[in-house]
Amino acid sequence: MASEPADDRSGALLEEEQRLVEEAQSGHLDAMRPLLERYAQPLYGAVILPRLGDTATAEEVLRDTLATAVEKIGRFTWQGKSIYPWLRQIAIHKVYDVHRQAKRSRKLADAMVHEVPAESDPASHADSQLIADEERRAHRARIDDTLARIADRYRVAIELRIVQELPREECAQRLAITVGTFDVLLFRAVRAFRKQFGGSDD
Amino acid sequence: MTDHNDDYLAGPVPEPDAEASAAERAHAKTFAELVDKTLAGRMPAAMSADDRALVEVATVIRAASGEVELPVARRHAAVEDALRQAVGGAGSAATTAGAIAKLPRTRRWAPWAVAGASSLVAAAALAMLWLRAPRVVEHVVPAAPREAQVPASWRSRPSDALVGRIERDRAGDAATRIDTIFADRLDGYRERRLVGGEP
Known about the structure:
The complex is a heterodimer of chains A (202) and B (199). Chain A is an all-alpha fold.
């Protein structure tokens, strides 16, 4: 019973999405605008940025993804599910192209992109929010798994400064060390994390 | 910005409690400042490749741990760029042409209709200016030739001949002289009005 309003809303959104896609496919490309606005953030926050780590490049990839989507909307076939998985697939291919060009991050790409087929089940009817949440959980699980393999003090430094985003001074205070010592700890922690995560090229 | 001789990305990572060299401390401080800026949403464009690699790892951790928002203005800009690029910009020529060809007839003609109407309004304004210009010239320019053609008595009526030499015994009779001059000028005015001249 409690899920009925949510189901109704989801159904209405899907109907609206289908109408907008059909309008775009008949030539009204402006009809894409609400769809792009709706999915730009999940694409950026859950798909592109966690795989790139560079905000400027992530924004460029988002632009490319949306432009490709508008250009190729004629090839999209409506199958009774959201357009989001299709957009996500375009974004992942763009991310992979960026990693291929930057050999420095090849292993990072391998770590993040090889999971794609499992996440992009074409038969999935889940809505965009569910997919984005699931994707974020998967990323977080990989991060936790890596954090578990580095020294405790490194894990704590990363948790305090990068996950909780506490100021350096407060991080140092909590660990009862100077700010300079905390800087060294964080520097080593990120290097250790990178080696375990697959970003090291050595 | 940083000392790149230590090749710190490739080398082993020291234990957490190992003593740091002065170079490592300096590098750690630089990295800490880069992280500060990145967390504040101002990821610096310029940094060494090694620093960038570490900042990217930090951003990946952060993005996977919570929602990193793309500012609304930048999101709008990305959407607008995508639409513009697909319809009239840097997209592939075939796709762009196809997309434009698919636009409804009214939307394809709308820019031409606006441009045509604007041209017509501009042409009408120029024509009006051109038609009105001669009247202005006719009204202003003839003043000089007409002034040259009117009699000298219409332009100036010296009073010396009317008053003549003022004798000492009539010096106090100024009212009479003024009346004479006024009557003469009144004559000139009537003469000019009666022959059709302007007052």
